[in-house]
Amino acid sequence: MDVAELDRILLAGAAILLVAVVAVRLSGRIGLPSLLIYLGMGLLLGESGPGHIDFENAQLAHALGFAALVVILTEGGLTTRWNEVRPVMPLGLVLATLGVAVSVGVVACVAHFVLGLNWQLSVLLGAITSPTDAAAVFSVLRKVPIRPRLRGALEAESGLNDAPTVLLVTLVSTGEVGEKGLLAFSGLVLYELVVGALFGLAVGWVSVRLIRRMALGSAGLYPLTVLSVAFISYAGGSVLLHVSGFASVYVTSLVLGRAELPHRMATRSFVDGIAWLAQIGLFVMLGLLASPGRFVLNDVVVALVIGVSVTVVGRFASVAVSATPFRLPWREQTFIAWAGLRGAVPIVLATIPLAEGVPHADRIFDVVFVLVLVFTLLQGPSLPWLAARLKVLDENAAHEVDIDVAPLESLGADMLQVYVPSESKLAGVEIGELRLPPGVSVSLVIRNKQTFVPDRRTVLRAADSLLVVAPSPVREQTVRRLRAVSRAGRLAGWFGERGREQH
């Protein structure tokens, strides 16, 4: 490759990235998951489209796909609210193991007895299509204001279910699953998940203490440090302990996201941008790997049959079995079942049998590709409507304030940036009526692009932005008080996180 060729590649790549970024806004307006647009871009650039790019390297796609999933899981863990995930982590773990097993069994039986496929292809289809996709779940659900425990359960499941499915697809593709037996395989999955999670916890715990003590020369080095820790967690777990790197990196990211680290918000913003880049590159690459000219009517029929079996029968059965011990209401079970979005993960998993040279692996890839396109198109846009119909929306979401933290390490204080949305009951409240903890000060108000220093009699308005300085020991109390007043007004209970008097 010479400089001229590199320049052409950079030009094309930058143009594709710019179009993809603009497509994010377009997908939000029309209610489509952005992955569909990126896959479509890959198809247009591929050998069957106007781009005529010939890309058939399944092994490279497999490797790059796993690397992209690591970045996506890292971003998901960093931005997940631990207080939402912790209570439902057992449910997420059951969905990621027992639920996946139920779904694989249902799809495999349908593929074998209804479609007449051999058991290897049937089990492969079940294992490839059963896991939910972290990128799809993280991006779509955070735009739908559902109850925190539902969002937490779905995010935990999508972060954990990659491990057993990757292992199953790999063992079936190499023919080892028959040699090991069901009991040995179950023990191996348990070992990979448990030890992988413990390793990720250890890496996160050590990293938090090291990063807090670091005095790096630039704020931009902290995001790079966090991303490096995430890859160490993934690769260290996989190489050193032979456990699930995906479980390791997700748990490490949860620990890092929960910790009070220097320049935490800058780190999250950086990783969010890298995760978008990973998603765009991943979906465009998978679109390039697909070949629409190879699709036949039979593949479409198989994709629809498998899609219905995994989305309707298998998914609802797996959720019902997994949720039984937790006594979830049927409305919540129904939403969790329908919100199990498939995205890049099944297509990435479909590259494993391609890389291993499994007979008819290209047909599996085509079926999975069509399935993801069709059922993501059906499920994604319907989630807001379904959440409203099932009455699982978070009643306080419209009154929630958006609070960001900028650490002031040298002062032992934090600066809270608070935005007052139109439905918030902060509007109309005087500064003095906020009754913030001692030592907390509302230092600045930004209104209609004008800034001024408020006094105790200043009345807040909708669309105001506030800068609140709070000593670190009372920061959480301050946040809880602001949220309570936002939901219930000036008479909210002192520490009522839900805007009610506490007894």
UniProtKB/TrEMBL annotation:
Its main location: membrane. It is a multi-pass membrane protein. Residues 403-485 form the RCK C-terminal domain. Coiled coil: none annotated. Pfam families: Na_H_Exchanger, TrkA_C. It comes from the Bacteria. Keywords: Antiport, Cell membrane, Ion transport, Membrane, Transmembrane, Transmembrane helix, Transport. It is found in: Cell membrane. The chain crosses the membrane at residues 6-28, 59-79, 91-115, 121-141, 188-211, 269-289, 301-323, 335-355, 367-387. The keyword Transmembrane helix applies. The keyword Cell membrane applies. SUPFAM superfamilies: TrkA C-terminal domain-like. NCBIfam families: PRK05326.1-2 (NF003715), PRK05326.1-3 (NF003716). PANTHER family: K(+)_H(+) ANTIPORTER NHAP2 (PTHR32507:SF7), NA(+)/H(+) ANTIPORTER 1 (PTHR32507). This is Potassium/proton antiporter. It comes from Kribbella hippodromi.
